Batch of 2 targets.
Target 1
Amino acid sequence: MEIPYTVKPRPDTGLYNAKLGIWLFLASEVMLFGGLFSAYILLRVGADLWPHGMLSIPIGTFNTFVLIFSSVTIVMSWASLKLGKLADFKLYMALTIACAFGFLGVKSYEYYVKFTHYDLWFKDDATAQKYFVAAYGEKGEADVRKHFVERFHLQNTKATYDPHEVQLVGHIEGNPLCTTLKRLAKEKQDKILFTPDPKFGSHDHPKAIEIPLSDVKRLSAYVPAHSTFFAIYFTITALHGLHVLGGALVLCYFLFTADKWWKKAPEQFANRIEVGGLFWHFVDLVWIFLFPIIYLL
Amino acid sequence: MSHDHSHSHGPGEACGGHDHDDHHSPEAIHRAVKKYKMVGAVLFAGTVLTVAMYYVHIPSVAITIAVALLIASVKAAFVAGVFMHLSDERKMIYGILLCTVFFLIGLMGLTLWAMHDPPMQTLVGGKPA
């Protein structure tokens, strides 16, 4: 049975069916992301503390450029079909797909960096003091503490931060992925070699220090369980990433079957590209709001 | 292999109601392509501006958030209006979007409203914990 109204508009809606379908789908997507955005606002406004500067702005900016560029290339691919230029269509579509996988590659790298970056909380202030001095020396310890305290301060927060609760930030030897105290205990490890992050404004890593796990109250990589910030960050960006992946797979299908569709049903094919493009622009649109809200504000 | 379908009915035509020759003639598409490139440049500039604003210290947090969201909204308007062709669409789609905006405002509003309704104390079995 032939699917009706793939090219001509339905008399009652004035739209071909796929276009009406994609807009209804996008409406549901707005509600999905809207729910998460409102959850983000609720969590953030209700939080006593909210971390600041935890994400790389150059990387986020680069990915924003990648998505914007892909939005231009996908609309150009549709325009190429309208002009009857299949070769141009293929070029623009390939560029769009390359951008999609580029975006996902960069995002995966960002995730990897977070999953191998750890915060350590010590059992008491004296123990913390000992390791701060071991890492940064008597002189640098106060600066580093101040910096770590500041990273939790946003201009709008009324909360105060207990400086005795400051954690040491850095990498565990061997860069284990998302490990926990429980897992380390299971592996019968009683100590870790920890390389603290450089001081603010410096690129020199302090020497690695050996830390017995009995001194550690909590250890967490930058995973959703780390904090409310990372929980909502990973939820929204992972969902967005899944949309990018899903979109990219559909676009791959369009590219690899282009010759067949162009011969068989060029008008329907152009409509499919328009519909796919609408979804892709929506993915870009979500990122346009995500980037300033999560990375910058 | 390339076929000339420039005069065939395309997606914009199929979505109906417009003057085909006006909106989807090769000349019109060429004009649209120029517009797409310009909007791309505007979006790039908007991103640079957003990031630049991050490094400008604005004393008021409310203004900082307002500026960031304003730039994002302008960028989003360009994407929706030009790339998604919303500046020239059928009424049916505007209707769908109007409903979406209504429910989105409701969703956001109710969530934020709930913020001012915190439980005053934890109850266990109907008694204060």
Target 2
Amino acid sequence: MSDTRYTKDHEFIRIEGDSAVIGITAYAQEQLGDVVFVELPEIGAEFASGDEAAVVESVKAASEVYAPISGAVLEVNGDLEGEPGLVNEDPVGRGWFMRLSVSDKSELDDLMDEAAYQAHLAEL
Amino acid sequence: MSETPLKHTPLDSLHRSLGAKMVPFAGYEMPIQYADGIVAEHNHTRAAAGLFDVSHMGQARLEGREVIAAFEKLVPGEIAALKPGRMRYTQLTNDEGGILDDLMVTRLEDMLGDERLFLVVNAACKDADFQHIGASLGNLPRLEVLETRALLALQGPKAIGVMAEVLKNCADTRCTGMSFMSMREIDSDFGKLFISRCGYTGEDGFEISVEASKAEGLARALLQSDDVRPIGLGARDTLRLEAGLCLYGHDIDTATTPIEAGLIWSIGKRRRLEGGFAGADVILKQIADGPSRKLVGLLPDGRAPAREGTEITSPDGAVIGKVTSGGFGPTLGGPLAMGYVASEFAAPGTGVNLMVRGKALPARVAAMPFVPNNYYRP
């Protein structure tokens, strides 16, 4: 049973047991436009919530992606190296960025659920 | 944040109706992209034809007795040798040899003993340019800023066919016979047009100066063709970067000279011998001795783009220059950049590093254009 949360910076956090899959939302990829490069962290890197964790480069510009929760990098999406366009084609699926361990479950409470995120989008 | 209200081109409502994403640029609200996105727009221009609104650029006519000799004091380009209907790329220089702006200069037919030039300059510089030209030339020549004319660019291999179709009712519609870097005045269903075979994409194509009131009608007529799609500033930038063309305010400015920028080809042989233009001392000395730094193309070995401002270092870690334009080339299929490096590192193939987010990413100096150009050369 997965549970997806969101940040106001348009990252998604799909909670799968003790870890979470992080990426950017459909809205974010649409705003960025054609993604041409994603810089992902090293496996094992540890982040505090709010640390810069990845960089996504579109034709237009480079944008930082911040760790939405504290945790260690368990896995990164190696497919993005050869196919950064997956972020545009399937952002919440094959275009995921990284899997983080969830070190502090209480941080998840600060994130938006689906309904809150949809309400956030409606205000933009 | 500047509170100056943004200006709008005559095609503003057309852009919005076509789904453009509008951004501030050089004091105007301009389309950065349409629904297709930058990569699709870029590819469409290379494969078929793209329509660009460049009405924000400055257009002017300069007329007067012996105005060409006077104008040549402001630019290093060979203007006197231009035949009527022919155009040149040149730069307005300052006394230090720096570039105030780059521009296109077309010689029109003389009229009643007056020589006449048609100028197209950059949007961000146009007020300063026209003030500089007016102040430098004095009262005798007439500088008429063409504020009521829009400028459209139709670029790509299918542009010629589209022009012939859209202008087929004109008595004098032989765009097909126009050579590269030439201009014609044509009476059309859209009023008097100044059509130039030139552009900023590396492709064959045209720039069309049209009265503002007729601009939307002309744009819609061009867009009727299945070959034509509207293209925003985003793809204009990737197209010009692949073509190795400088962008004013980024690759060239008052702190760079035409020689450092690799624009020596735009300075005629006579001008090199005679001088007599602003900054000639500096520029002619750099031609003789070689500049200490040069604008070069850069190809990163990896996939990460290096953006404007990225430091360039030598293999042993010394800072040797800075990226002035950089991003991703859709036709090239990878990252590309332009930047200044110390001249000993300027030879194509030289290995350098680009400092991206604190990491030294290896890159090679590359000859430009990055993508072969496709200008009309019969």
